[in-house]
Amino acid sequence: MIRAVVADDQRSVRRAFTAFLHDTDDIRVVGESVDGPTAVSLAREHHADVVLMDVRMPGGDGITATERLAGPRVARPIPVVVITTFDLDEYLFGALEAGAVGFLLKDAPPPEIVAAVRAAASGDALVSPRVTRRVLTEFARRRPRRPDSTRGPELTPREHDVLAAIRRGLSNAEIAAELFIETGTVKTHVSNVIRKLGVRDRVQAIVWAFENDHLFASERKTS
After folding, report:
1. Could you tell me which residue ranges the HTH luxR-type domain spans (predicted)?
2. Which CATH class is domain 145-222?
3. Residue 126 has pLDDT above 90, yes or no
4. CA-based, 20 to 30 A from 182: which of 27, 41, 62, 124?
5. Domain 2-141 carries which CATH code?
6. Which pairs from 167-173 meet CB under 8 Å and 24+ separation?
């Protein structure tokens, strides 16, 4: 059973998320919070597997809470999926730096939010396709380019295909279906890509791909 915490200052939003997460057979909401600090406490107290985190909460923002739960200095991180009303929000960039494994819009259909919770719990990530390019392109533009960014890593052709699919916001299952390979094989390729890129996680791999957009010129020409 996946244990989830929902953090949002709007009661109606919390209750809506809790309702359709409880409609599943494998997810239970073990805590609801109106601010970031309480979300951190509840997540740790109930050993949550995933936290759905709003970014703007007057009692304590979701970015600081995300860093406390999933930042690079956390020994045992708890996956955080950021939810927001805005599809291009300044706070989202901070959330990505803080360690969020994905983000969605609040008006995302229930199946998409359920999929994001399941993906985060399994070590995967789901970034809403509606906002992937806009948000991550801007995020990559703001970050300083690395000195070696003109060269690509030593990826195999299949690993490059997987990275290109990750960059488009596809889940492991979607990548497996598109490339006609097993989901387990996709997970292996994703792990290899993350290791070769020298990044922290899947979302950071997406950011790297947008920072190095020139490496995917052929995909754009053929699409």
Report:
1. 148-213
2. alpha beta
3. no
4. 27
5. 3.40.50.2300
6. 167/132, 167/206, 167/209, 167/210, 167/216, 168/129, 168/132, 169/126, 169/127, 169/128, 169/129, 169/132, 169/206, 171/115, 171/119, 171/124, 171/126, 172/119, 172/124
Side chain identity at residue 45, one-letter code = E
Cβ-contact 125, 102 below 8 angstroms = yes
C-alpha dist (Å) from residue 190 to 47, 78, 109, 182, 208: 26, 20, 26, 13, 13
**pTM across the whole model:** 0.76
73-119: per-residue pLDDT in tens? 888 899 999 887 765 556 667 777 788 888 788 888 899 889 889 98
Give CATH 3.40.50.2300 domain extents, the chain: 2-141, 145-222
Report the Cα 138 to chain-centroid distance in Å.
16
Amino acid at 82: V
Burial class of residue 25 in the structure, from the number of CB atoms within 10 Å of its CB (0-12 exposed, 13-18 middle, 19+ buried): exposed
Length of the chain measured in residues = 223
